[in-house]
Amino acid sequence: STKDCATVMTFAQVICLPGIIILCFLSDNYIVEHYESGAPSTEITGVTVSPTEKHDVRESCDRNAESSEPSKSFLCLPEHRVIPVVIAASDVMTGCAAGMSIRYFTIFFMDNLQLSPSIVSLLGILAPLGQIVLHKLAHVGGERIGRCQMVVMFKWIGILLMVSMILAYKHDFHVSIVCTLYLLRTSFMNATSNLTKSVLMDSVPRNERGKWSALESVNMFSWSGSAALGGILVVKKGIIFNFYATAAFQFISTLPLILLFKRVKD
């Protein structure tokens, strides 16, 4: 009922409040000062510098070395912009694909699978737990075979699990199997966000990282627009067709990353 929903939402807001209060007392300046005072300084070409200054010196040297090389272009982009633009484009497409279906999984569980609200909420709790495990696995795999390669592999596994979930439902498999496939699919699809972000941050100058990080807000905006598109597909073709379209769009979003397999240094 409406009253029950209001109670749940109020309780959720109360739980979030302590975390918000704690964040108000955090200071970036304290973190940087603590890091610099606790870490040993390093001597570079006869000059003693702190770890953060060391990073700036090396970054400056890298930029000077790049500027001395002849400029190249790829996909009509300057060479130094290829990696961040491709990563950002892939992330935006992935966000649009996710927005098409993420709002409708709850409807699918309650209307198609006849699950209770408590079970649907339990699925929402279990999915992040799987992501924690796969985050670590993705990090280790990224060091071994490459970050972009690991992202593509995890995304493709997630897409296959999405299709498997749909087929399991259509062939009347037990509800527990469908839900398990959903949890695995969600965990694999969301376990590589740190890898793509690390590639993006490593490929842009330090003073531009905030600007590129702001693309996260574009992704959130794209979720709303793609959710509307997903709603149109649900009305016109049905919720299962929308899931198929999501899987197809997610596959397309991984294709730009293949271009970076030999460009990203791991």
UniProtKB/TrEMBL annotation:
Residues that span the membrane, as ranges: 6-26, 82-106, 118-138, 150-169, 241-261
InterPro entries cross-referenced by the UniProt entry: MFS_trans_sf
Statement: the UniProt record of this protein carries the keyword Membrane: yes
Superkingdom of the organism of origin: Eukaryota
Keywords: Membrane, Transmembrane, Transmembrane helix
PANTHER family recorded: NODULIN-LIKE DOMAIN-CONTAINING PROTEIN, TRANSPORTER, PUTATIVE-RELATED
Identification of the protein by name: Uncharacterized protein
Organism: Ditylum brightwellii
